[in-house]
Amino acid sequence: MKNKIVYILLLLGIISCKAQVIGTLEQFEECRNRPNHDDGCPELENITYVKDTNNRLNQFVGTWKGNYGGKQYEIKLEKKTNYKDEPNDALSWDMIIGRILVKDSSGNIIYNSMNKPDNNTFFSGYNFQHRSYVMSFVGNYDCLESGNVFIETRINNPNEMTLFYSQDKDGLLNPAKCPNFSTFVAMLPTTKMTLIKQ
After folding, report:
1. Strand 49-51 relative to strand 22-24: parallel, antiparallel, unpaired?
2. Are 135 and 125 in contact (CB under 8 A)?
3. What share of the chain is helix, strand, coil (3-state, %, to 5)?
4. If you count DSSP H runs as helices and E runs as strands, how many of each does the chain have, helices first?
5. pTM score
6. Residue 9 pLDDT
7. C-alpha span between 170 and 92 (Å, rounded)
8. DSSP alpha helices (H): ranges in 18-149?
9. Which residues does 116 contact at the CB level (< 8 Å), separation at least 6?
10. Nearest Cα to 149, choosing from 195, 85, 112, 109?
């Protein structure tokens, strides 16, 4: 009798478990590069896990430091495997979660997300665009500070990484929440900067 119960429970467990369908970052990158990518990629519709099968994300993992425009930057990048933004998300990714510390020329902290939980850093990536890994970033959203960050390690020196921020142009600005918008300077540089791996 005990054996029958164990077998029934095991069978129910197998039936209730949905098999994970694995795709690769390369497949999603190739899909994104198609001229008709907005029409979707039917072969990827049933994927439940986008895996970094070739460990391309590993090159970014670590702490990176650099200076630009009188500011000191420290960026910590961590690779997460099988990660979901929300527990009920249907799709999980191998991805990079980033944390940023920015100081002015006097050493005063301008921005710090180093101690924020993974789902609250507002700096994470999903895919490659050729050699660059594309991450989304949201800083001071009230001043429309959000967009894509492109990071890329140098071929001849993997301990150097370039970073470029492309700020979104869309969004609703509330002047009451960002009264100095006309003089607001984005925290991340909108031209390429170099960071050194520590």
Report:
1. parallel
2. yes
3. 20, 40, 40
4. 2, 11
5. 0.83
6. 39
7. 27
8. 25-32
9. 99
10. 195
CB 150 within 8 Å of CB 134: yes
**Alpha-carbon span 88 to 135, nearest angstrom:** 22
Question: How far is residue 22's CA from residue 15's CA, in Å, rounded to a whole number?
Answer: 19
Dist. CA 40–CA 190, nearest whole Å: 30
59: tokens are 């090159």
Let me know: does 99 contact 121? Beta carbons within 8 Å. Answer: yes
| pLDDT given for residue 106 in this prediction | 95
Fold designation for 60-79+93-197: Lipocalin (2.40.128)
How many CB atoms lie under 10 A from the CB of residue 156?
6
Residue pair 192/69 in contact (Cβ under 8 Å)? The answer is: no
Residue 94 in contact with residue 80, Cβ under 8 Å? Answer: yes
Say how far apart CA 26 and CA 85 lie, in whole Å. Answer: 21
Q: In 100-137, which positions are buried (b, 16+ CB within 10 angstroms) versus exposed (e)?
A: bbbbeeeeeeebebeeeeeeebbbbbbbbeeebbbbeb
Q: Say how far apart CA 198 and CA 180 lie, in whole Å.
A: 35
Enumerate the H helices of the chain as residue ranges: 2-16, 25-32
How far is 161 from 155, CA to CA, in rounded Å? Answer: 10
Alpha-carbon distance of 1 to 158, in angstroms, equals 61
Question: Could you say which residues of the chain have pLDDT below 50?
Answer: 1-17
